[in-house]
């Protein structure tokens, strides 16, 4: 039987597939942290807060185009959750991609507080 967490991740996933940044922002805490799979630091590029999230999606030179998430599953491990997924699309350089990934999530007050992303690469 679906619960509030299932509903939250269903909304979050649909928003990502539509690149609907305002709906994504509605699913996360004000101090949300997203550790991207790419970036120079060991933690990757880190976005903090809803304004960083909006800037990231607004910068089309950074974002994947036509990204489509599928095969998504949420797995619960105590107070942590992780999601597995497949993502396909066109990268910022115009090249097609097809990757599997995993995200570690932390929740607070019924919203997503942390999304720590890992993605298979060449």
Q: Are there runs of 5+ residues with pLDDT below 50, and where?
A: none
Strand order of the largest sheet: 2-1-6-5-4-3
Number of helices: 3
For this entry, what is the oligomeric state of its chains?
A: single chain
- In helices, the fraction of residues equals 25-40%
Number of DSSP strands?
6
Query: Mean pLDDT, rounded to whole units?
Result: 87
**Percent of residues in beta strands?**
over 45%
| Morphology | globular
The main sheet comes to: 6 strands, mixed
What order do the helices and strands follow? HHEEHEEEE
> Structural class per helix/strand content?
alpha+beta
Spatial extent as radius of gyration: 14 Å
Distance from N terminus to C terminus (CA atoms, Å) equals 38 Å
Task: Give a short synopsis of this structure.
The protein is 25% helix and 47% strand. With 122 residues, the chain is α+β, with helices and mostly antiparallel strands.
Topology:
Elements: H1 4-18, H2 21-26, E1 28-35, E2 46-48, H3 49-58, E3 65-77, E4 80-90, E5 96-108, E6 111-119
Parallel strand pairs: 1-6
Antiparallel strand pairs: 1-2, 3-4, 4-5, 5-6
């Amino acid at each position: 039987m679906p619960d509030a967490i299932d509903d939250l991740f269903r909304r979050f996933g649909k928003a990502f597939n539509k690149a609907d940044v305002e709906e994504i922002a509605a699913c996360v805490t004000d101090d949300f942290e997203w550790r991207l799979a790419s970036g120079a630091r060991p933690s990757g590029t880190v976005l903090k807060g809803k304004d960083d999230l909006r800037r990231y999606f607004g910068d089309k030179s950074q974002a994947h185009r036509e990204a489509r998430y599928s095969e998504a599953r949420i797995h619960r491990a105590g107070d942590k959750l992780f999601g597995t997924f497949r993502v396909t699309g066109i990268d910022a350089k115009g090249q097609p991609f097809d990757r599997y990934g995993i995200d570690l999530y932390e929740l607070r007050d019924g919203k997503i507080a942390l999304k720590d992303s890992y993605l298979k690469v060449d």
